[in-house]
Amino acid sequence: MQRRPARRKGAASTIGDVARHAGVSAMTVSRVINDGPNVRDATRQRVIEAIRVLDYAPNQAARSLASAQSLKIGLLYNNPSAAYLSEVLLGGLDQSSKAGAQLVVEKCEPDAEAEALDRLLSSGVDGVLLPAPLCDSAAILQWLDEAGLPGVAIASSQPDDSLSAIGIDDAAAARAMTLHLLELGHRRIGFVQGPSDHASAALRRQGWLQALSERGIATDDSLIVQGSYTYHSGLDAADQLLSLPLPPTAIFASNDDMAAAAIAVAHRRGLDVPRDLTVVGFDDTALATTVWPPLTTIRQPVSDMSRQAVSILIDLIRRRSDEPSPGARELLDFTLIQRQSDGPPPVI
Amino acid sequence: MQRRPARRKGAASTIGDVARHAGVSAMTVSRVINDGPNVRDATRQRVIEAIRVLDYAPNQAARSLASAQSLKIGLLYNNPSAAYLSEVLLGGLDQSSKAGAQLVVEKCEPDAEAEALDRLLSSGVDGVLLPAPLCDSAAILQWLDEAGLPGVAIASSQPDDSLSAIGIDDAAAARAMTLHLLELGHRRIGFVQGPSDHASAALRRQGWLQALSERGIATDDSLIVQGSYTYHSGLDAADQLLSLPLPPTAIFASNDDMAAAAIAVAHRRGLDVPRDLTVVGFDDTALATTVWPPLTTIRQPVSDMSRQAVSILIDLIRRRSDEPSPGARELLDFTLIQRQSDGPPPVI
DNA sequence: CTGAAAGCGCTTACAG
DNA sequence: CTGAAAGCGCTTACAG
Q1: Could you please report the per-residue DSSP string of B75-113?
Q2: B3: confidence class by pLDDT, cuts 50, 70, 90
Q3: Among the listed residues A50, A52, A71, the one whose alpha carbon sits nearest the alpha carbon of residue A60
Q4: Do A63 and A81 form a contact (C-beta atoms < 8 A)?
Q5: B48 φ, ψ (degrees, to nearest 5)
Q6: Is the pLDDT of residue A124 over 70?
Q7: pLDDT at residue A96 above 70?
Q8: Is B340 on the interface with A (CB under 8 A)?
Q9: CATH 1.10.260.40 residue spans of chain B
Q10: Chain B 2-41 contacts with nucleic strand D (CB below 7 A)
Q11: Start and end residues for every CATH 3.40.50.2300 domain found in chain B
């Protein structure tokens, strides 16, 4: 029976060790760690060096005990999609643990925002992460304001002014995708629009329109069909598009669920994708690669967004009471991921 | 400009408050909190009452600082599916935060188990959560053993003996689903099997066989088709089944991805689901409800499993060095979720 | 079965 | 710009 080694992370170095090594007091080390003012540059350098040499990492428990400030961050979610949620969670968790903050996750049921928010508040959070589409909810924003808590929107390109936000430029991404389709030779591109209560839906449509007009392609209103971001709505939308007297040679769906549905419809009609019809999506969810052929789509760096959102939120919390920062906006790069659902239009 | 209220969770009660209220020392309160021995029952009751009255909750930071035991729990994942992962994450996060443990999440790339594990070890985790199928990896189990770390398998019904595990009874669930199909009137039920390196695959097949034999239905080998849990493999499997001279009236796929593919194939062949063909899955992933018609499937309580796995792991860590507990097994209830992809067989 | 003392590693006032 | 002291809320030996 193998006896378990005692592997307690042997005597991690403390603030005292660093102080001794640098020839200063613990107080000064603390100042350096916390980016405090009033440290001569030479002193600061010596401390930083000592930290490096001793491989020192502050003990978070001691930190929060002493400062009586545990840094609890709330994350409200609404399950738009599991893939999206898990990325938000992964990024948020990673950054929170690095920053020594605790992440408290609450589900927000459709018409019970108040309850979720109250649970969050009573658990003592110092700020809230709001992944889209929750950041577009007026009720939530108002509540946040009343509670006096800072919030950061994730994956929202057009959030309320009261919020700091991080996201991609949805319009630019949709424009890039449309340009890609145009380059392949497509001229009749069907567009499946998202629901009007999602800020992203309008922006994606706008990007599509812009690319078209840039290349001098006249827009044909019959090529725009309304969807609601659900797979089921994509079924109807694609059917409508492919029933047109002059059907499109490519379908650009505003999200992957609807694009996956478009592929299903094409197959049912005996059309090969991408030989007979090109279908592209948006979001790069798990569905994009479970479906056959895998979808060409736009990927948002969701976990990076979440990571950065945590940093921004912590800054906001630490700075508190100061000027109520006027909602910073941060844009991250998207990626066009080309897989196997796109190709040139069929030669007639 | 609304000034932020100072809402620091006003003077939460401490162990001292409780001690005073109960007329004992802080030490005794600590014993009660930690289920320590040597407390007279009457004393314990008084303390519990005081805790209730004062709404006392131990300060985790102080706790881990004092005990120099921060309780870090590692979670290794391998992205089988985002839905599964997010449930594991949600449950694990919830329970860890309740127990004052920190959750450290690491991704384990296909052939780089060693790296992921080393990162986990160097981050100082005290134990590891292993969601299926990672708990079936010999490399990981060996590493865990060498590191002397306790581990708990999640959603595994047939894990290694060295591990504690929590899961559902896959065979019983598959049997229940098959019985359900039989009750609807089906007699020719096609079965799409999972990959042989997944413990669950064999168990699910076994459950299917058992139900059949219980009802005295002869098994027809042509009705068993090999799949690999991917959507793409489901396409081929369903094609094979539906090309049979005497095709099945129902297809039971071992997971939702393959079931979704079966629906796609049926549609492509002009078959209506469920009127002409019943299709059921297993797992209740997001795909089950994005596809049309939504899938009848088996749901595992993944987030509950994850929650309990955390509790078990913490017990294991606290108990350490003691008898190396011989791998407890915990079975949770599954649910058969009936949606719209099943019905009686077509009348001929 | 119960308690008084010391200390975990940091930060917060307060001095200089 | 820097430091000595006290204390955050708990637990760990150690006594009784």
Answers
A1: EEE--S-HHHHHHHHHHHHHHHHHHTPEEEEEE--TT-H
A2: very low
A3: A71
A4: no
A5: -60, -40
A6: yes
A7: yes
A8: no
A9: 15-58
A10: 12, 14-16, 26-27, 30, 33-34
A11: 72-168+302-332, 170-299
B61 to A65: CB separation less than 8 angstroms, yes or no: yes
3-state secondary structure of B279: strand
Position B4 scores a pLDDT of: 30
Lowest mean pLDDT among A188-202, A317-331, B171-185, B284-298: A317-331
| A156 lies within 8 A of chain B by CB | no
Chain D bases under 7 Å from protein CB? 1-5, 7-13
**Mean of pLDDT values over A187-199:** 92
Q: CATH class for domain A72-168+302-333?
A: alpha beta
**pLDDT above 90: percentage of residues in chain A:** 45
Q: Which of A162-166, A171-175, B37-41, B323-327 has the lowest mean pLDDT?
A: B323-327
Q: Please tell me if residue A286 touches chain B, with a CB cutoff of 8 Å.
A: yes
**How many Å lie between the alpha carbon of A1 and the closest alpha carbon of chain B?**
8
> Do B65 and A61 make contact, defined as CB atoms within 8 angstroms?
yes
Tell me: pLDDT of B10 over 60. no
Minimal Cβ distance to B97: which of A60, A102, A145:
A102
Is 80 exceeded by the pLDDT of residue A238?
Answer: yes
Q: Which of A62, A105, A291 sits opposite B231 (nearest CB)?
A: A291
Interface of A with B in 234-273 (CB under 8 A): 235, 257, 260-261, 264, 267-268
CA–centroid distance for A291 within its chain = 23
Measuring CA to CA, which residue among B196, B185, B186, B167 is closest to residue B283?
A: B167
Residue scoring higher pLDDT (A250 or B60) = A250
Chain B neighbors of A70, CB-CB under 8 A: 60-61
Contact B132, B200 (CB under 8 A): yes
Three-state DSSP at A74 gives strand
Pick the residue of B13, B59, B93, B341 with the most A CBs within 10 A to test the interface with A by mutation: B93
Q: Which residues of chain A (246-285) touch nucleic strand C at CB < 7 A?
A: none
Partner-chain contact A4 B320, CB within 8 Å:
yes
pLDDT (tens digit, 9 = 90+) per residue, B282-295? 999 878 988 889 99
**What residue spans in chain A does CATH classification 3.40.50.2300 cover?**
72-168+302-333, 170-299
Task: State whether CATH 1.10.150.120 applies to domain A15-55.
Answer: no
| Residue A229 CB partners (closer than 8 Å, separation 6+) | A194, A195, A198, A201, A254, A255, A257, A258
Query: Chains A, B: CB contacts under 8 A, how many?
Result: 123
Strands B297-299 and B278-280: unpaired
pLDDT at B97 (0 to 100): 78
Q: What percent of chain A has pLDDT over 70?
A: 92
Is the pLDDT reported for residue A207 higher than 80?
yes
Q: How far is the CA of B66 from the C1' of C7 (A)?
A: 8
Strand D reaches within 7 A of the B54 CB? no
Regarding the domain delimited by B15-58, which CATH topology (the fold level of the hierarchy) does it fall under?
434 Repressor (Amino-terminal Domain) (1.10.260)
pLDDT of residue B101: 82
Q: Which of A3, A93, A320 faces B105 most closely, judged by CB atoms?
A: A93
Claim: this prediction has a pTM higher than 0.90? no
pLDDT at position B199, please?
83
Reference B300, options B91, B152, B10; nearest CA is: B91
Average pLDDT for chain B:
86
Average pLDDT for A188-208 = 93
A30 touches strand C (CB under 7 A): yes
| CATH homologous superfamily, domain B72-168+302-332 | Response regulator (3.40.50.2300)
| Residue A199 pLDDT > 50 | yes
CA of A65 to C1' of C16 (A): 28
8 Å CB contact of A4 and B89: no
Torsion of CA B244, B248, B251, B252, to 10 degrees: -110
Domain B170-299, CATH 1.10.8.10 — does that match?
Answer: no
**DSSP, res A266:** H
